[in-house]
Amino acid sequence: MGGLSVAYRTLLALTASVSIAALSAGAAHAQAAGGTQLEEITVQGQNQGQATGPGGGGAPTIDGAPGVATSDGYVAKTTRSGTKTDTPILEAPVVINSITQKQLEDRQPQNLQEALAYTPGVKVGAFGFDPRYDSFFIRGVDVTYTGIFRDGLRQFNAPNGLFRLEPYGLEQISILKGPASAIYGASSSAGVVDLISKRPTDYKFAEVEAQTGSFNRVQGAFDFGGPVNADGSVMFRLTGLGRNAGTELDAVKDNRAFIAPALTFEPTDATKITLLGEYMDATTGGSAAYQNDYDANFVTRGAIRTPLASDDFNDFRQKQGRIGYEFEHQFNEFVTLHQNVRYSALSTRQEYNGTQPVPDLNLTLRDTGLLVDDVQGVAADTYLLTKVETGPARHKILTGFDYSYLKYTEKQAFGTFTDPNDISKPDYDDAGAFPAYYHQTQKLFGVYGQDEVEIDRWRLTFGGRYDWFDSDFLSKTTTTTPRDTIELQKQDGGKFTGRVGVSYVTDFGLTPFAAYGTSFVPNPGTVINGSVTKPTVGEQVEAGVKYAHPGTNSLITASVFNLKQKDGVVYAVVSGLNQQTQLDFRNRGFELDATGAMQNGITLQAAYSYIDTEISKPASLDGKQITAIPRHSFKVWAGYDAKSGPLKGLGLGAGVRYEGASYGDNTNRSQIKNDGRAFIDAKASYELENLSADLKGLKLQVNATNLLDDRKQFCSSDYCYFDQGRQVIASVRYRW
């Protein structure tokens, strides 16, 4: 860390020099010669946050978190997730896919996987039906642990302690494709998924919703907020949800209680601070899979339609919370200070049990287990946004530093149904006999800078960052080993990452672009052969085109990419045990995303992706494809909201998700190769005020996922699962 003070002083000097120059420029703002003035997107306060406006009626409006993201129905316009500035998505030289508030309301996703299901290049369901974790792949890379951000800050996860998402608490989801370590620090080479929380609004609103559906589902939710005082300088929002439900597996629950308060204080037009909090208590199942048929070498031959677990000892209870703030102060029209800080924590108690037959050995394996995790994390990001002009060039310059800290502890215990010390006995926790124990602390500090340059129609982005990290890892795997004799494994080091991009904005809506970036992430809590894993590094080159037809509410993005990753952490089941390994690989492909909304109420979202994966290391897997990643996938969702006539108030929607064949393990065994499959989803809704003015604000809606209940076997990392079956949810919402 010796170079830290030098880099820190250098950053402060750079920040000061740029800021002083901008501050001394005064209030006058000269227009750049020859610059192209694009149409300004204005977000009216009363329209923020509600896709259909207060009361559920009225004309279509701009939704999204104020100052963080804006969208018009299905089509996102801006998001800070791409560059940490207000650059329009059309102009940014990166691929940004967005899931807007309108899309969330229409599809009613129950978890992050369902919310991302129609995003190009995203693979969900790699582990069949599994409500325990928000796990998914982007462009063939598992981003579960290192690619999820919340409100621009990294969301920390440990091997079995992963924060879970409640979609009802979100305004929008932004998916930034490609390496973004240059501005976000430790993160996945495939991209960043930024979950944007609901925020206070400057108008009063409220809604309550009740749901019922498959597997005895009962759910209630509320969301309300608005100004607290007369001048509107203090605003609040409170969002909550409670659910009691089963699932297609009898031993797996889907219960949760969720509450998310938010408060915004604007003492002046130049200063704003928003407090964001959340608490969730959720219970699901520790074993959420099906039995596999093993051969004599304990290699799976496929899944059988018998649940792995009984419900005697299978509760997975997780309590999680976060509290933080976003501070913004505008010194003048040229210089703005941003600071985002969050503390988050979770605790889990995961019971599990399972029965696995091994017919070749005339053997049935039975076991139970208990995992207890505690995870804490602090993330803080401070940066200046400085806008200056140098001749014909306009600059948006970021200079910042951030700090993050992760600490987690995991205790593991194992037993059998016939063991006299069966861990399902209630006194097991008090016995203190956990045979396995893991503890890690990880610290990262980074300094970064970025310059977005606008010259006539050209948009150039340059960014660079240096991160320092250190990690302490301690583990024991037997009850006979005293903890004070275990060797502490230490890691430390640093890494430079960068990003450069260029785009050209035409006056007829076409924007070609190209970009290159690198990534770096120390892996949390991973051990291979008794040693902590190496940090994962990656790089990607990408080129494409964006098109927004003038006068329409639409956006089309097409791109080709070549992504390389070194020392990526992957999981595989070997001899019935889930193990970690590291791979070097390259993924290349093509993506197409088209989203549009017409004045007659028709909305359309279509996506196609081609991903060709190839492992290069270890040598035993050279040339093999990465498990569970299909080469071809196609997704389309179409909707219609009647605006007038006898069907006014009726909303219909339907979608198809198709993916091609893939392999069930990294050795590409043909015995567990996954066939192609397609799923059909549907939605119908009706605004009851069209029957009677007294029913204004009432809306009925029914959603179905996997409508045809097509449940095929899907294998991933040497274990086989079944796709999630049909789920139908009916809701009634009252908004005023």
TrEMBL record:
<keyword id="KW-0812">Transmembrane</keyword>
<dbReference type="GO" id="GO:0038023">
    <property type="term" value="F:signaling receptor activity"/>
</dbReference>
<dbReference type="InterPro" id="IPR000531">
    <property type="entry name" value="Beta-barrel_TonB"/>
</dbReference>
<keyword id="KW-0732">Signal</keyword>
<keyword id="KW-0408">Iron</keyword>
<feature type="domain" description="TonB-dependent receptor plug">
    <location>
        <begin position="90"/>
        <end position="192"/>
    </location>
</feature>
<dbReference type="InterPro" id="IPR037066">
    <property type="entry name" value="Plug_dom_sf"/>
</dbReference>
<protein>
    <submittedName>
        <fullName>TonB-dependent siderophore receptor</fullName>
    </submittedName>
</protein>
<keyword id="KW-0410">Iron transport</keyword>
<dbReference type="GO" id="GO:0015344">
    <property type="term" value="F:siderophore uptake transmembrane transporter activity"/>
</dbReference>
<keyword id="KW-1134">Transmembrane beta strand</keyword>
<keyword id="KW-0675">Receptor</keyword>
<keyword id="KW-0406">Ion transport</keyword>
<feature type="domain" description="TonB-dependent receptor-like beta-barrel">
    <location>
        <begin position="269"/>
        <end position="707"/>
    </location>
</feature>
<keyword id="KW-0472">Membrane</keyword>
<dbReference type="InterPro" id="IPR010105">
    <property type="entry name" value="TonB_sidphr_rcpt"/>
</dbReference>
<dbReference type="GO" id="GO:0015891">
    <property type="term" value="P:siderophore transport"/>
</dbReference>
<keyword id="KW-0998">Cell outer membrane</keyword>
<feature type="signal peptide">
    <location>
        <begin position="1"/>
        <end position="21"/>
    </location>
</feature>
<dbReference type="InterPro" id="IPR012910">
    <property type="entry name" value="Plug_dom"/>
</dbReference>
<dbReference type="Pfam" id="PF00593">
    <property type="entry name" value="TonB_dep_Rec_b-barrel"/>
</dbReference>
<keyword id="KW-0813">Transport</keyword>
<comment type="similarity">
    <text>Belongs to the TonB-dependent receptor family.</text>
</comment>
<dbReference type="InterPro" id="IPR039426">
    <property type="entry name" value="TonB-dep_rcpt-like"/>
</dbReference>
<feature type="region of interest" description="Disordered">
    <location>
        <begin position="43"/>
        <end position="73"/>
    </location>
</feature>
<keyword id="KW-0798">TonB box</keyword>
<dbReference type="InterPro" id="IPR036942">
    <property type="entry name" value="Beta-barrel_TonB_sf"/>
</dbReference>
<dbReference type="Pfam" id="PF07715">
    <property type="entry name" value="Plug"/>
</dbReference>
<dbReference type="GO" id="GO:0009279">
    <property type="term" value="C:cell outer membrane"/>
</dbReference>
